[in-house]
Amino acid sequence: MGKRKKKKKTGRKKTEVRNVQPASVRLPLKNSDDEVTHEDLYISDVLEPQEPERGELEMVGQNSRFDGRLMGRARSYWQFGEWAKLAAIDYDDLAPHPERAKLALLVAAGHQQLAKLDEARQWVWQARQWGCGERLVAQVLIAGAYHVVGRAALLAGDQSRAARLLEATVRTAMPTAEASLWLAPRRELAEREVAQRQNALKLDQCLGVTPAPWMVSVVESCLRADDVHAAIDEARERHAFSHVDEIHWYLLLSTAFLERKDRLTAEHFVNVARRNVGPTEIGLAAAVARQLIRIGRPEDAMEVAVEHALHADSIEAMLPAEDWSTVTSAFQRLRQAAKASGQHGQALLLEYLNSKLETYRADLGGRRPVLIEIGTTREEVSGQGSTRQFTGFCMAHDVDFITVDMDPHNAEMAREVFGSMKCTHCDAIAMKGEDYLRSYNGPLDFVFLDAYDFDHGKHSELRQSRYEQFLGSRIDEQHCHQMHFECAQTLVEKLSTRGVVCIDDTWLEDGKWTAKGTLAVPYLLENGFELLEARNRAVLMGRRIDG
After folding, report:
1. Cα 210 to chain center, whole Å?
2. Phi and psi (nearest 5°) for 467?
3. CB of 230 closer than 8 Å to CB of 190
4. Which of 396, 380, 389, 379 is CA-nearest to residue 345?
5. Residue range 312-346, pLDDT digits in tens
6. 539: which strand partners?
7. Which one of 219, 426, 461, 510 is CB 3.0 to 4.6 Å from 418, fit for a cystine?
C-alpha cells in the first residue's frame, strides 16, 4: 500500500468551557436569573427524552443550528460508560442546543468518571449557569460517586459490596426504572473499567510509567472505532496532552497493538514516543527502551539507553567536551552501519542519488529535480521510514519531493514530518499512485515505487482494514502486481531520459522477478530500461542510453 491522508489540521484543539469559574471555585448557590431551572428533575429526566420547556423552545427559536442527535448520543455514552466520548463533547457543539444545561451536566459526569475533577467542576458550574438545579446536579454526582466506589470494591475483590453500590448507582440515577434491567450492564461496565485500571498497573510494572486510567479508557475506545487511525488522531487533538502524557499515550497505543499481535504498529507507536523524549528525560527513555525490548527490538533499546547515557551529567563530567563529542560520533557511526544492512530500497536509491545527482543536475537547465515516492511511510519501524529519509535528502540537496498514497492518514503523517523538519518544497498527496503518475504533468526524474503491498500472509488486521476502506478489498497479490505494472507503463512514457526508478520489495526467485516487481520489471526491461543494481530486496532501473 503506501501510506495515507487525513483532513489537514491547523493545530490541536482543546475542549474548553467558556466563561467558567476556576476549578477551585465552589458551585454557586443560585442559578442565573435569566436561565430556566430544572430543580425538580431526576437523572432519568436527563436520560429519557422530555418535552422541551418554554425556555428551551425560546432558545430553539433564537438559534436552530444545533445537532439534534447530540442529546441521544450523550445519553447513550452515559448509560454504556463511554466516558471519554462523553467528556470529549465540545462546548461549541452543545452551547446552541436547547438542552445544553443537561448536556453540560452529562459532560461533567464523564469527566468525573475519568477522574478529571477540575474539568468536572468546571462543567458542573456551566450546567448550573445554564439552569440545572442543585437537586439534579447532586443526583448526577452522587450516582457517579456510587459507581466509582463500586468499581473500587470490585478492584478490591469485595463482590457483595460492589453489587450494593452499583445497585445504588442505578436507583439514584433512575428511581422509577426497573433496577434489575440495569444492574447487569452496569456491573459489566464496572468490570471493564477495573480491567482498564489493571492494564494501567500492568504497564507500570512492565515499563515503569503509570498512565492515567482515563487514558487507558480513551485508547480502548479508539481501538473499538470503525476508523482506528481517525479515532486516535481525533483523541490526540481533543485532549491536547501534556508532554509526559503524550509519551504515555503512545506507549499505551504500542502496548495495545502488541497485545493484538500487531508488532509493526506497536513498533511504530513506541518509535513516535521515542522521538518525543528529550535527551535528559531518563525515566521516559527507560520506559521506551523497555517497550522496545517487549516488541523484539533489543538493539534499538540499547541505542536509546546509550544515547541518553551520553547526555547524562556524569558522562559530561567524566570526559572533556571534545572527547565526549568523539564518543558520541563513534557510537552514531556504529549504529548507522548496523542499520544500513537492514535498509529497504530507499537506501539503494539514496546511495545512487548521492553519487549521481550533481551530474544529473547539470543537464536540467537550472530547474530543480523532482523525487516522487509512490507509497508513503505508514509506520515508523526499523529499516523503513523512507518518507522521512527522502525529506531529509531533498532538503539537503535542493530537490522537490512529492509523496503519494491512497490512504489519507499516511499523507497526513507525511505532512507532520514536513512540518517538524520545516521542509518548504515537499508535498503529500492522498491518491492512488498509478492514477497520480498518469495525471502528473511535471518532470519525472526519480521515482520510488513502494505502494500496494504483496501478500506475504503476515499483514495486520489494521493494515487490511485500510485496504478495505480505501481500495474496497483486502491485500491481493494480483492487484499488487497490476498496480506496479500500471506505474511502469506510465514511466516508459514519462520518465526523464537519465531518470531512474527504484522498485522496493522485488527480487529474483528461480529466475523470475517476484513480489511488487513481478510484472513491472519485465515490462521495463522489454521497453528500453536496464537494470542498474539489485540489492536490499529492491531493483534500481534507468533507460538504456546508447553510447
Report:
1. 20
2. -65, -45
3. no
4. 389
5. 554 454 556 666 567 666 666 666 665 555 567 89
6. 503, 534
7. 426
Give SS3 for 110: helix
Residues 512, 391: Cα–Cα separation, whole Å = 33
Largest interatomic CA distance in the chain: 94
Which grid coordinates belong to 347? 537506501
Whole-angstrom distance, CA of residue 8 vs CA of residue 290: 33
User: How many other CB atoms are found less than 10 A from the CB of residue 145?
Assistant: 15
Contact 347, 353 (CB under 8 A): no
Which phi and psi (to 5°) does residue 167 adopt? -65, -40
* Grid cell at residue 493: 512514457
Joined together, the cell numbers standing for residue 182 give: 440495569
Which spans in 295-401 are helix H? 298-309, 313-318, 321-340, 345-361, 386-397
Dihedral pair phi/psi, residue 543, rounded to 5° = -70, 145
3-state secondary structure 142-181: HHHHHHHHHHHHHHHCCHHHHHHHHHHHHHHHCCCCCHHH
345/373 Cα distance (integer angstroms): 11
Taking only the tens place, the pLDDT of each residue in 121-180 is 899 999 999 988 888 888 888 877 877 777 667 666 777 777 777 777 767 766 665 556
Find the angle CA(100)-CA(106)-CA(110) to the nearest 5 degrees.
Answer: 140
